[in-house]
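hi support,

uploading two proteins for the ticket. first:
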Amino acid sequence: MDHAEAVPIAEMVDERRYLLDVAYRMLGSAHEAEEVVDETYRRWYGLSDVARAGITAPRSWLTKTAREICLGRLTRPDCGDEATGTAESDKPSQASEHPGGMSQEAQIRRVLLNVLDSLSPAERAAFVLDDVVGMTPGKVADTVGRTEPSEGAELARWARHRQRLQYSRPTTPQQHDAVARAVRQACVHEDAGHLASLLSPDVTAFFDGGGKVRALVRPVHGSRQVAHSLLALLACRPRTSLTAQSVNGRTGLVVRYDDQVAAVISLGITDHHVEQVWAVLNPDKLRSWNQPANPTPDSDTTV
């Protein structure tokens, strides 16, 4: 995907809300509506890049697909997940939500996240599973929630690169905070030139939509490309705000649409420049940010 295809946060959140409303009106169940919308986006990402690029009105395509899935459920009410074409074995595991029933892979991932604090969650897992455990790229990608083996290999490669950079040029919390807040200012003022100057020439940005929103599906490389992707994602729209607050122990960026946290962005900063951007857009991973007692700016929350 090209950076020009980045979808603004406001459009992304509105689109998912709209699809949930469509499914709920047809099925009368919030739980089933969530399942239908998830399946709708699975079908969207099941298309080839060329096929997606050829769809001139993505929301119309998604709406039509959601309605078709709902009709399938209404005409085959006893088939459960067969109506969405999803087998029981294909359902995402819920073990991580129940500590007593946590899978072995989830337990491994939790340990990794507590050890490699300087990396984003998926990077930490990919780094250790690839370098220490020796998992294949496909297994690494599956464990860290990626669909393509190349994405797991990319995460591990970038994690190794960041480890080398941090050992050679460590960044203090104060330096990190200053750069992160400068990035926020550049985004708020939509200053592409200044934003690009704060990024390393070989910066990489990851957009974790989890297949549940219309986000970029591949990493974006290079200061100009990443700057344009971020500005497209954070495009100033009514009811959208961008704040700097603690994420995973260091200053990051939090995007809110209305009162809902729609994105959490972690920044890997070395030698006064951003080397890595990790944008979490997956609604499931943002649930803790949208609990009744939301963190205040500068409080710490982990994603």
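and the second one:
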Amino acid sequence: MTSLQTQTSQPPTLQPLQDAWQRWWTTLSCQTNELWQTVTSRDTSKIYKEAVWKTWQIFTQLARLLLLLLLSIVGGFLFVWLLGFHTGRGFRIWLEADNPTPMTILKKFVAVLLLPFQLVTIWVDRTLKQAFGWDLKLTQLLPEPDPELLSQKKNP
């Protein structure tokens, strides 16, 4: 027989239906027994108890974190809102009481913007002088702070 000739072959013999049913039932029975042994094992209950406990810990820690983030965001929002409200109220009272010119408003605005830098400069100058004895006179680099901004008097 050459490679070009087709081979005649017998069709595969079909197993009787009874054998197929027996093989299926045996496979199902083995798989069921294996599952039952895994479920009833002592390790299985221990592992699931630990998994449930660890899942509960993760859930509670995540809930706490989300609650703290939410409260922080709400607190930050309220802080900014109240700061803006009180600043606007103080600015309105100052405008109504003094009737300042636009140049006075601009000078006050610049003084407010420079105030943090002036305070930090004063603090750094004092700290360096106390710690190392250096007198760098950093306060001379910026104009003097507005005494009205440094005072502790409160507006009505």
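thanks. also noticed: The first helix runs from residue 17 to 39.
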